[in-house]
Every structure is written in C-alpha cells, then in structure tokens.
Amino acid sequence: MGGEIRDGLAELKEQLRRLRAERRLSMAGLELRAGLGHTTASGALNGPTVPSEATVVALARALGTDASPLLELRRKALPTAAVRTVVSRDADAGGDAQFEERYRQYVEQRHGQLSVVGLDLSRPDRVCWPLDAAYLSLELSAPIPVGRAGDGLPASAELRLGTPGGEVRVERAEQALAGLRRVLVRGLAGGGKTTLLQWLAVAIARGDLPTELAHVEGCVPFVLPLRTLVRRGALPGPQDYLEAVGCPLQGAQPSGWADRVLSTGRGVLLIDGLDEVPQTQRAQARQWLRELLAAYPQAVYLMTTRPSAVPEGWLADCEFSELTVRAMSTRDVAVFVTRWHAAAAVATDTEQERTHLAALETELKDTVRFQRDLARLTTTPLLCALVCALHRDRRGHLPHGRMELYEAALSMLMVRRDRERDIGAPEGLVLTEHQSIQLLQRLAYWLIRNGQTEMDHETAHALIDDALPAMPQVACQSDAAGVLDHLLARSGVLRAPAADTIDFVHRTFQDYLGAKAAVEARDIPLLVRQAHDDQWEDVLRMAVAHARPHERVTLLRRLITRGDRALRHRARLHLLAAACLEHATEIDPDVRQEVEQRAAALVPPRSEGEASALAAVGPVILGLLPGPDRLEEDEAEAVIRTAEIIGGDAALTVIKKFRTSTQARWALTNAWNSFDSHDYAREVLAHIPCDFPVTVRSPEQLAELHSLQTGQVAFLGNFTAEEMMAPLGPQDLHDLNINRNFELRELDFLRPYTALVRLGLLKCPNIVDLALLADLSSLVTLTLADCDAVRIDDLEALNRLQSLSLNMELPHPNVGALPVSADLTTLDLGTATCRSLTLDGIARWPNLRRLDLSGPIGGLSHAAKLLELEDLILLGDACLSMLEELPPVPQVNELWRGSWRDGDDLSLLPTKLPGLRKLTVCAFTPDRPVDLTPLRGMTDLAIRIQGTAPVLGTEHFPTDAVVRAPRPRVGTRQRGRTLAECGLLP
C-alpha cells in the first residue's frame, strides 16, 4: 500500500513538472499565476507530501489544464484509513484507533462546509459551501524584534512596515504557522480566523497537510468555540470536549482517549473566539488554559481573538507566538470571488445558473476593481462574501450608489453577526444599531475634520462622554470608557492598532459615517472648502448620497462655483462634482446639466498631454472615462493612456472596455508594461480579436507570450534566442523587432521562420552576419539601427527587400554605393546615416515611392529623378530649408514634417512640391507658430497639424481643409476653454 501511495505521489508531481516545462513557466511565474507562495508551489512539485486539493486546483488553472486528472492522481496518493491507523500507533489497541478514525471522518464532514452568517438571502443553501473549494490562505504577520529585521527570514516571507513603528514578517498562513505549537491569532471581525481553524481541523483529520505543517501530521484536532463552551458554566476538561461541542460520538468515546491523545502530544486544540467570552469570565478562561498547558505541555494550541479583546503579550509568559491576520490583497480578493462563485456553482442544479454565475464572477471582479471604495471594503472574507452574495441575489446589480451595501455591511458587523451567532453581551452592554452609528459617526467626523486617521483614547472618551447626556438609554448602562470598550470589541469597524490609539478598520466606513455626520451638522460650506483635498474626495461623494435633495443642490452648486473661480483646482472640483452625480439618487435637472457641461470640457482627453493632465487629477477621473463607443481614435488612445498612467485594478477595468474595439490597438498593447503581466495578458491582450503588435520587456511578459495569438512581436532587452523563439510558431511570426539586446550574436535561430515579413534589429551591437536572411523568402522589410558590427555587404544577397531602414555610420560615400540589389520602394535613413553619406545614386531604385530622412543630407536634388516618389518624410534635424536644392518635384503628393523648428517656413512648398495634396506638421511648442499663409494658393491641400502650437493663416483654406490633433474643444462655453483655463495644464 505504501509503495502505491508513493507511486501516485511521484506521478502527480511528475505531471505538474512536465506541464510547467511545456508551458515554459518559471517557478516565479507559476506562483504568480496560481496565487501561491513559493513554499507551497515548490512543495507541490517537489516536496515529500501530498499537496492540498486547493493547491492542485490552483496549479491546474495556472497551467491551463483540466484539474480532474491531477485530482485523481492526488486521491491515489492520499493515505487510506489503514495507513492513518499506523500514524496513530501510539493509540490504545483496545479501540482508540477505530474510534479515532470515526472521529476524523466526523471532523472532516462537520467542518468541511463553510458558513457565512449575516447574509439576508432568499435561499438558505447559499450560506454554505465546501471548504475545499472556498478556503483561501490569507496572510499573517508577526512582529520582528527591533534590531533583528531580516535575521533568519524565510524565503517565503516578506518584510513590511508594521505598527507602531517596527517591521513585521508577512507570510501565508501555512507558512507563518510552520513549526509553532502555541499561537494566538488576532484578526478583525470576519477576517477569516474561524475559517482558518476549520481548515486546520479538516486538513489534520484527512492527513492532508502542506509540507510546512508536518509537525501536526497524524494529530487529532479538537475544535473548541468558546462562545459555546462558556454557556455550560465551567469550561470543560478533555473528557468532556466532544459533549461540550455537541459531537454525537461523545458516547462512543473510549475512556481516557482524549487524555491519551493530548498527553502524547498528538492533540491539537483549536480554541476559537476568546473575544466572545464575557469580560467577567476571561480571567477564568485564562486560568483554564494555563491548567491545560500544565497538564498537556506537548499538545498544540491555536487560539483566536479580535485585536482589542486582550492586551498584547497576554499569553507571552506561556510562550505563545502572536500572529495577526492581514487585510486581503487585491489578488486574494480576486481568488476569493472566483472560489465563491465556483462553490455556488457546485450547489446549483442547472447549467443555466452555472453559466450565469460565471458571468457574475467576471462582472463582480471588474466592479470591485473599478470602484475604489468597494475595493477598500472587500478586505476580509466576510465582507467579500457579503458582496458576492448581494451581487448574486440581485442578479448582478449591486446598489447603484453602494450606500445600501455599506448599510448592510455595518448592520452585519455591528448587530446581526453577533445576534445570528447567539452572542449576548460579553461586555455587559447592549447598543442598538442606531445608537452605535450615532457614536461612531462622531468619532469618524472628528478624524476627518482634523486630518487624522487615528485618535488617542482620551479624545475618544471625551467625544463619547459629550454624546451620552443626549443618549440616556446608553448612559444608564455604562460610562464613556465602557461604551468605547464595547465599540472596540463588538462593532467590527473600530479597532485599537496600538495600546493608546483608535482607528477605523476600513477608511470607507470612516468616510461613510463622517459624511453622514457632516450632513447632519449642516457643514456643507466646510465640505466645499476641503473639496480640493483628495483626502476629502470620498467624503464629498458620500455626503451627496446622505444629503436630502435640496442639500444636494446646494453642495453641488457651491462645488462648481468654487471650481469656476479657483483656477488652480478647477479640474479637480469640476470632475469631483461629476463623480458625485453617481451617488445622487435625486437631483435637480438644471444642476445635473451644469455639472455635466463642465465635465464635458475635460473628458474625454484627446492627446498625450491631456491624458497626463487628467491622470494628475487622480483616480476620481476613472469613473468618468468613457468606453470606446462613439469615440474618435485619438480620444480612445488618450483614454487608455490616462488609465495607464493612473494604474491599478480600477484602471485595468477601464482599459478592458477597449479590448475588442478596432481603435487604439497600439495604445492597448503599449499599456501592458504598466500592469501585472499575467492579468493584463489574460484580461486584455488575449481578447484582441485580430493580429496586433506586442512588446515583451520582462520574463513575466515572456511567460505569457505563448497564450497570445499575435504574429507581431518586439523584444526589448537581453533575451536569448531560445527564450524569444520558444513561444512563437515558425509559420505564425511575420513581424519581429529585437531592441537593446547586447548579448545576441547570431541570427541562425531565425532559419525556421520562413513566414517572417518584417525584421528590425535595433541596438544589437554584437550582430555581425546577415547572410542567413537571404534564406527567408518572405522577408521584404529590414531595419538596422545602431548595429555597428553588422556586415553591411550581406545586404547584397537580400534581393527581395522592398523596404530598408538604416541608422548607423556607413563606410560608403553615397546611397548609390550601398550593396543593395533589391528594387526598393521605401528607403529610411536615420540621423547617423544621413551624416555619413549623400543621396547621389538614389535613382538606382526607380520604383522608390517613399523617402524618409532624419537629418541634413547632401544630394537631395537627385530625388527629383525618382518619378514614382510620392511621400517625402522629413524628421528630426531634416529641416524644410533642405528643399531649396530640389528642382520642382510634382510627383510628390505627401509631405510629413516631423518636428517643427525655429526658422521653418512653408514658402518653398508651392514651387518645389507643386503636386502636394497632403501636408502633416508636428508642432508641439506653443511659442513656434505654424504659418499656413504661404500655401494659400494650394486650395486642394489637406493639412494636418499635430500638436499645440498656434496655427496662422487658416482663413485661406476651406473649413475642413485644416485638421488639428488634438482637436480643439468647441460647442458650449465650457468646451471652448483651453486646457490651461480648465486647470489641467500649468
């Protein structure tokens, strides 16, 4: 049997390693995709123990394969009941082993379901789901003693700034608990403490533990919820544990079994909810624990509590380590949402509902990412589950203003959660929900008004003491100190991060409650005065939601009026007013129109400059950025650029709207570098419907390249030939650029890529031999820039080339001497090349249709011999005065002036380029106007001015003959303002 288990485990790990190799994923890339820590992922592929089911599912998803075969291999690798009996060899032969196996099965069934209380849902089956599918390993932190930061830090851990000023070690739960036998875990209401104990109990019972927790392998778990035990009076001894928690097997328990388990060190006591013991009984609970420690020092103890229930170091003298559950990360939230919906799908009966759940999952992830206040709210499993449940129950429609969501969350945290878990009054004090909110909003508003995120106990006592005379039902139960202790222990939204400070667990709750207090205090002038401060941004939005209709009108009118007068803050104030409309369930139509008109002067952006300026306003702008419908291409590009500059999950949600649009493909792919490589590739690039260019700058992006269906790839950096080509099929790649690669020396790796049409080598100084390129029959475009070692004579064999771009010093006097036998249609000469030769001999390419020049070059008059020449491009230092040496060239119908310089004028164009039909001028310097007057006789000319420079002489042309990019804003009084007037530019 043991050999079969080992074979099954070896096959599972071999399969995982093979899949990773096939996908060409580094361990770091695999861990990132799977959302697993290094130790967990490495152990799953190479460790001596069976990985958990959740780990296998996560790895299968990351590897893009079906999890079922892997889970079957895992099942074969699990120890059977007979093997587990061997683990229990210390058990009494008279029946302990048989009972222990029954008890393990009971624990697995009893705690294998997760229940979330406080959810007001229409069906009770929606409050439970399988632990395997839903459990999420959260992060735990432990303080590091001063002067010892980094000493012996595990590879899986991170150092982060902690409170009140030291550093903390942060690891996933299984890693943080590794080797510990006495632990106190602190965490907020709904933070996942109870779920952690459930997971440990089930994993121990199954013998299904990660490598890190090998020290409890073969042990027996006892789950002891203190809120249940204290109702019995005296806390139970080991022989009464099963009866105390209502286990039906308590009557079959062999005499002395629990004592034998604990005394041999095989017992794990999972003691949940120290904070749920009434204060008058906590000393008794501590004494009960001390007696257990004295009687069973070899057993494992894990206790949980809310942060403020017991002081720091409460069990330090008993050698307990203290860990704190950290808020869920963005990735944790995404994983939780996925698992919640997967678990809900298991419970449903119809394929239609499962399909609907999959759509809800995607939609909710986008919503949480996009709405910052919602993202800040979903930082614990409880609140995440609340959001998931409300989203499903309302068929994908969370409350529009989210105020109802906050109300539901506050209600659950402050009242319903304790009520539904049948927790009475541990502090001897009972407050209604309304009373709690009235007190909490006083504290929240004081913090907001004073620009603070925390207050001392003395200030909190004083604020509550001031409120008690008006609240006799509360005052008769306790003084201010007692009320504050109750709010800290039971409200779920207030905490004490240090011994003498108090703050709110979620900034969202502070803003919500503080805004409510501000409206009730009629402090609208104060709100408007502080509106330019981004710390007040959410307070303003919440205040609009709390306000009555006439108060909303006053607040919004004062906000836009202040914006009209305050040049410096105009953009922020006007955009904030527009963002507030989302929270205004009822608003005067005239006021709405005023607000929308001012926002229309700023959104959508139309240029890089406008995008940068809008991004400077901050994330508030994201909610106002439109999707691709009815946008011009310059607007679409600028919207994407704005979101890219801001960054973050909410910005990614904005960009996702454009992934199936035909516009702004370059902007979409260029933004990859500003987001998580895997997320952006999976959620944006993989959905672009046709071929698109993509630039790979990092190993993480390289790992995603195999999943992208594109034949246009650029590599930026020192990638090896093997790394670049492994994800690219020989018949799929048609456009390749290699840039800034200082290690690459040979091009032999391109031999199989016979479909390659365009190749660019830029700043690859060690490339010498180009002869291989002659074998690539499809290659028609070649770019060489700063490749000084390349053997230029190899170009002679490339007789199929149509387009050649060169930017390097060349040992030739003129283009006629270049070793190029192909019949070129496009020639692009960069700055360095223009310095080293002339255009003498250019007539050797009679079919040349486009000539690009980036600097002054001799012999421009020879270009007149090119009878097929249509496009002339003057970039960089190639100024318009160069045209003086040209005879009239009527065949040129398009001119591009890439950089408008001092001294440039257009007076040469009518005589030198009499056939010109299209002119583009790039002019971004406001003090260098472009005067079109010399062209007034060319009435058929289409002119495009890119940039912000003033343009003169437009009156000589038809209305639609001169196009500006970005296009000027005209229409309303507000639309007619310049960006500087709108406060977007200095």
Number of contiguous helices = 38
Name given to the CATH architecture of the domain at 97-327: 3-Layer(aba) Sandwich
If strands are numbered along the chain, what order do they take across the biggest sheet? 14-15-16-17-18-19-20-21-22-23-24-26-28
**CATH fold descriptor of the domain at 97-327:** Rossmann fold
For the record, the CATH class of the domain at 97-327 is Alpha Beta
Helical percent range? 25-40%
Q: What is the name of the CATH superfamily of the domain at 97-327?
A: P-loop containing nucleotide triphosphate hydrolases
Write the layout of secondary structure elements.
Blueprint: H1 2-23, H2 27-34, H3 38-46, H4 53-63, H5 67-77, H6 81-87, H7 96-110, E1 113-115, E2 128-130, H8 131-134, E3 139-143, E4 158-161, E5 167-172, H9 173-176, E6 182-186, H10 193-206, E7 220-225, H11 226-229, H12 241-244, H13 257-263, E8 267-272, H14 279-295, E9 300-305, E10 321-325, H15 330-347, H16 351-370, H17 372-377, H18 381-393, H19 403-420, H20 433-449, E11 455-456, H21 457-467, H22 472-475, H23 480-490, E12 494-498, E13 501-504, H24 507-520, H25 524-529, H26 537-546, H27 549-565, H28 570-580, H29 589-600, H30 608-617, H31 633-646, H32 649-656, H33 665-670, H34 677-683, E14 693-696, H35 699-704, E15 712-716, H36 721-725, E16 735-739, E17 758-762, E18 781-785, E19 803-807, E20 826-829, H37 831-836, E21 850-853, E22 871-874, E23 894-897, H38 909-912, E24 918-922, E25 930-931, E26 942-946, E27 951-952, E28 962-965
Parallel strand pairs: 6-9, 6-10, 7-8, 8-9, 14-15, 15-16, 16-17, 17-18, 18-19, 19-20, 20-21, 21-22, 22-23, 23-24, 24-26, 25-27, 26-28
Antiparallel strand pairs: 1-2, 3-5, 3-10, 4-5, 11-13, 12-13
Helix pairs in contact: 1-5, 2-4, 4-5, 7-10, 15-16, 15-18, 16-32, 20-24, 21-23, 24-26, 26-28, 27-28, 27-29, 28-29, 30-31, 31-32
